[in-house]
Design goal:
The protein contains eleven helices and eight strands. It is of the alpha/beta class and about 260 residues long. This is Enoyl-CoA hydratase-related protein.
């Protein structure tokens, strides 16, 4: 288990720099591949980070795919299909990792960048944050799960309007629609997201991972299934060291020691 140019780990946080300053802060294919390796290790137990943090390496979180590379591809359908498969592999690994996901959504989150923000549990933005589906602007349909995720966040009618009209969402729009969790000064977006990720990593990791898993399962679960899953989860956690410590610390009127 080693860090790579676009993936690093510290204090229980796995950080993925999903875009690069080059090519208009577009989605970085190398970062996607490196993240897939790291997340596969996380799933297998070879890594033990407790929180996933997605950031942009340039002025934007991610301004979408590298359209110039699309145009230069000898076989565009094969090229775009391969990119979508890798992006979807990344998103699936994040979604099934059972870890809280924090996103530093500074500047533009467009196209695939907007799709990636939709998998965040906590999304930090700034006044200059803007989101846009972008796909129809280049004659394409969405990928990255946007047509699945956005309706579940903002509702089907709003999602249809946003995607079909290629609407630009300001930071305030994104906050009001629930696409962004909080807004801070632009220069503080990365720092605030890292602060939140570190706080989560220092907390009761078992409880937070179980909660993240429940939240991700909820959209496609029936109420009865979700109630059963919640009952099983809280019962299991009550017999784990963190659950025992948390309850005992509360009764004893002291701060819990999660480590």
């Amino acid at each position: 288990m080693t860090d790579s140019p676009h993936v690093s780990a510290a204090d229980g946080v796995l950080t993925i720099a999903i875009s690069s300053p080059a090519n208009g802060t577009s989605l970085n294919g190398d970062a996607v591949d490196e993240a897939i390796v790291a997340l596969t290790e996380l799933h297998s137990g070879a890594r033990d980070e407790r929180v996933i943090l997605l950031v942009g390496a340039g002025k934007n979180f991610c301004a979408g795919g590298n359209v110039a590379a699309f145009a230069a591809a000898a076989d565009r359908p094969a090229y775009l299909g391969g990119l979508a498969e890798r992006l979807h592999r990344l998103i699936t690994l994040i979604d099934t990792a059972g870890r809280p996901v924090v996103i530093a959504a500074k500047g533009w989150a467009a196209g695939a960048g907007m799709s990636l923000t939709l998998i965040g549990d906590v999304v930090v933005g700034g006044p200059s944050t803007k989101m846009r589906p972008a796909y129809s602007g280049i004659g394409l349909s969405p990928d990255g799960g946007m047509t699945w995720s956005l309706p579940r966040v903002v509702g089907p009618a709003r999602a249809r309007a946003i995607i079909l009209t290629n609407r630009i969402l300001s930071a305030q729009n994104a906050l009001e629609l629930g696409l962004v969790s909080e807004l801070v000064d632009d220069e503080q977006v990365d720092a605030r997201a890292r602060e939140i990720a570190a706080e989560l990593a220092a907390g009761p990791s078992g409880a937070l991972q179980a909660t993240a898993a429940l939240l991700r399962a909820a959209p496609t679960a029936s109420l009865a299934d979700q109630l059963a899953a919640e009952a099983a989860s809280i019962a299991r956690l009550s017999g784990q060291p963190e659950g025992i410590e948390g309850v005992d610390a509360f009764v004893q009127k002291r701060a819990p020691n999660w480590r």
